Amino acid sequence: MKFSLWMLLNTLAPFEPVTYIRTEEKRNIENLRLYSSDDDRKESVLYIAKSNQVPLNHADHVICMHADNYILLNTNDISLVFNSVLSFFEEKQAWYYELSSMLSGHCLLKDVLNHFSSVIDRPLMVLDASQIVLAHSANFGPGSIDDPWDHMLNTGSFGVNVINEYNQRYQRHIQDKEAYLVPAGPFPHPNYSRNLFMDNEFIGFFSMILKGSPLQNEEIDWFDISYEAIFKWLSLYADNNEITMKQSLFKELLEGDLTNISRFGDALGALGWAKNCPKRLFVLSCISSYLSMGAHIARILNQKTDQMYAVSHENEIAVLVNEDKIAYADTLQEYEPLLHSSGYYGGSSNVFTDLADFPDSYALAKIALTYGPVSPGKIHACHDYVLPYVFRLLKTHMKLELCHPAILTLRSYDQENGTDLCKLLYTYLQNECSQTKTAEALNMHRNSLIRKICRIQELCHADLTDYETRFHLMMSFEYQKHNA
User: Fold this and answer.
1) What span, in angstroms and rounded, lies between the C-alpha atoms of 59 and 50?
2) Predicted pLDDT of residue 240
3) Helices and strands of the chain, counted as H and E runs
4) Which of 133, 249, 385, 445 lies in disulfide reach of 264, CB 3.0 to 4.6 Å?
5) pLDDT 10s digits, 427-456
């Protein structure tokens, strides 16, 4: 581990340190020595000396020298200073050795951040490219920072509105390779951040929240060390290849390519999905492209459970749910608040077991998405919208008159006589030809209803006791309603 003069300030605080920085203070100190005029000074060595040993205009004090920079201490006890600095070096080298052991021992990302709590007294967090928080400092609980931090602790995200505002203001920083300071807004406090790249591809952020005192130079050095540790962890354990592979296979199925269907089945098996388990597909869309947070929402869904797999695809989100583990009603209830707050609504397929049925299920979910109301938070079942889809196809591809002639007759009669026999017949068929239910629905006396039904049969010569006749009539009504 390498140090800088800045990193020594807290240890030297009892000696009332005063810094004299003449050139850039680099973090490259590796060794400690008592100064001798016979030594050839090295940039990697921190020298402890009496001020009268070097040409400095100070009284009899101890100084810590590194390159052209030094710290003046209000003491002449060089042994005490040397031992204090040596203890600091030994303690931090042991701390760094423990960190290295953690990184090589398959630790969790949150463990890496928590290890830095002894040297950085500020909240740290790692976010992925979709701005989902992958890990954060555990020593800052609810109520310790601000409302967005509390929201993140509860949900794993700072919320769609905050993220949208942040992106509008600071999108220019996404390609920065060096650390940068972000002022307060939309967050209550500034933050000091650095972007994470893998093979020149942006994969996320590493940030430190600056609540209270201004950012100090020693904090910048410790932040750099923590960034190096985070980057090493991601290089070793992020498992980007597996994530990319699953997303690629999922998107192939969405595009109708079943070539690698068995590989995707194996990927689901690795998540604990039983072969041929009951599955349902959801397709989600945002009410506005301006609000669209597809990658962000997909990441949230994937983090919640292994029994759901989501991917952002063509400005939509496709979600495959293992209904052997998560019931349809539970899915709708649990995720409605998230979808509502982010402006998403969707459609769902029927249950299927064979992945070969994926393209058809995707088409059904898209039908519900297309024909269902645009209502944030709501997911519409495909079976409620199959008829509108079928009728639209009939209207588009068939020019024949499909309407039952009885309805054409009644429509003309209603127009000439100011009656409403079409509505009566439709209501009668909807109520399965029950005179009692129909009379109640129309707020009509039952005898009046019977007379009008008889009049309809006289005008149209339609046998309402015949199933095919009733079916043709009902289909005609629905066809007109959905293609009005």
Assistant:
1) 9
2) 47
3) 16, 15
4) 249
5) 999 999 999 999 999 999 999 999 999 999
Residues 6+ apart with CB under 8 A from 372: 345, 347, 378, 380, 384, 385
The per-residue pLDDT for range 293-343, each reduced to its tens digit, is 788 888 888 878 889 999 988 889 999 999 999 999 998 999 998 888 888
How far apart (Å, rounded) are the C-alpha atoms in residues 298 and 219?
34
Strand 18-20, strand 180-182: pairing: unpaired
Task: For residues 484 and 482, give the distance between their C-alpha atoms in angstroms, rounded to a whole number.
Answer: 6
Pairing of strands 201-209, 316-322: unpaired
Paired with 192 in beta bridges are 181, 208
Amino acid identity, residue 416? E
Where would I find the H helices in 182-271? 217-237, 240-254, 261-270
Q: How many CB atoms lie under 10 A from the CB of residue 418?
A: 7
* Contact (CB, 8 A) for 19 and 29: no
Report DSSP letters for 101-114, one per residue: HHHHTT--HHHHHH
Quote the distance between the C-alpha of residue 412 and its chain's center.
Answer: 57
CA distances from 439 to 135, 449, 470, 477 (A): 64, 6, 19, 19
Among 287, 288, 281, 284, which residue's Cα sits nearest to residue 375? 287
Question: How many of the other CB atoms lie within 10 Å of CB of 167?
Answer: 13
d(Cα 73, Cα 79) in Å, to the nearest integer? Answer: 13
Give every CB contact of residue 14 below 8 A, 6+ residues apart in sequence: none
User: What are the tokens at 405?
Assistant: 């002639």
Cα separation of 20 and 61, whole Å? 14
How much is the pTM? 0.60
Residues 6+ apart with CB under 8 A from 338: 297, 300
Residues 206 and 208: their CA atoms lie apart, in Å, by: 7
The residue whose two tokens read 């026999």 is 421
Task: Tell me what percent of the chain is helix, strand and coil, each rounded to the nearest 5.
Answer: 50, 15, 35
Residue 231's CB is within 10 A of a number of other CB atoms, namely 15
